[in-house]
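Exercise: predict the fold of this chain.
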Amino acid sequence: MYNFIDVEASGFGAGSYPIEVGLAMTSGQMHCTLIRPEDDWLHWNEEAESLHGITRDILLVNGKSPLKVAMLLNEWLDGETVYTDAWG
């Protein structure tokens, strides 16, 4: 079956980091989680923000820690195959 993941980022290319992950699963479950930037994750691109509409302030207030998000993804996707349109 098919599971799909989408990741929004702070910018484009080197220095950018994930800020949101969305997941749609064959089971019908859907998940969306904001990711709170670590203190040393400083890169921010205004053009990327204009595309995804997520501000750094929103992430700082509502985001989960990267470790928590990784643990959730491991739980949700255990043993599953995941597809994405992300190329690199």
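Check your answer against the key: The chain has one domain: 4-77.
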